Amino acid sequence: MSIFKENKQATTPISNLGEFGLIEHITKSFKTQHNTTTKGVGDDAAILNFSEEKYHLLSTDMLVEGVHFDLSYFPLKHLGYKAIAVNVSDICAMNGAPLQITVSIAVSNRFPIESIEELYSGIQAACSTYNLDLVGGDTTTSNQGLVISISILGEVSKDKVTYRAGAKENDLLVVTGDLGGAYLGLQILNREKQIFLENPEVQPDLQGNDYSLQRQIKPEARVKLVEVLNKLEIIPTSMIDVSDGLTSEILHLSKNSDVGITIYEDKIPIDHTTMNLASELNLNPIFCALNGGEDYELLFTIKQKDYEKLKKDVDFTIIGHVTNKSEGNNFIDKAGASHPITAQGWDPILEK
Ligand code: ADP
Ligand code: MG
Fold first, then answer.
1. 43 lines ligand 1 (CB under 6 A)
2. Does residue 351 register a pLDDT over 70?
3. How far is the CA of 154 from the centre of ligand 2 (A)?
């Protein structure tokens, strides 16, 4: 029998499971064998136990051309910076600090050396911002596009590490910064690309959208806010970073913590420029904040007693609270009506 013969049984589409279902499916039969593996698959970073006082944190993220970025509008320098920032964000989500990275690239011969230099100038800028050492990687060819895979090592005091699990009933749900901006930045870039493709004479109109564009093209990991939490002596009971969108992250926190979560429409922080841009693009800003990803803010739960300590800091917004699991995950709109949060998030446009 030829090894090249098609396996007629193998026809199950990945979409049957989705990304998270697939990860669970392929990793569930792996048992950890070393007592230095404190936490394997399932959080923003793995937790490794090599020293008395600290845990080491290990995480990896890959960016693929055409899937995660479009080089027709994404400057390579910014891409290099973003690739690092999104990895640092996963270390922040464990309440940790980043230390070292490895960077692996697959490049096709359509890229000149100058392009790779551009990419690495962004990587270097991010290493400087986040105090990271580049300690290795791999370089290979790709048949078509550019692929960047980064692994990051971080550390956290053992008494401060935060998991996606750990939220308890009556805890408060907090998000840093504001949401929806990165998604709208992407919409603007896509809009201008379409216009350009239809009429290459027209100059892109990016004016007045600096904030959203910056959120999409130059996101920052919330390292400073992890330091603020530390100074305020707050250890979140659970934490995740907002990479896929608020609703998706809420579902991860509630599932891992075995609780329910309720959030309120009128509490969700949205920058006024995001509001204006959403209305210009005929999008519901709440929908963008709930379902648009890539804001790289931190979403975490705290004990009620810690509320007084962070209530004055504008970088933190209480958007909801933790309930019993039996109540499920809910979004309370401005009129007070409750909507269950589903895997796709709550879509106010589809509901109408
Ligand atoms: P994040 O969005 O924080 O980067 P992911 O959703 O990518 O997290 O991954 C969730 C968890 O699944 C992490 O612990 C990650 O290391 C693990 N994971 C993802 N893909 C794989 C894979 N192909 N094999 C093993 N573990 C994986
Ligand atoms: Mg993450």
1. yes
2. no
3. 14
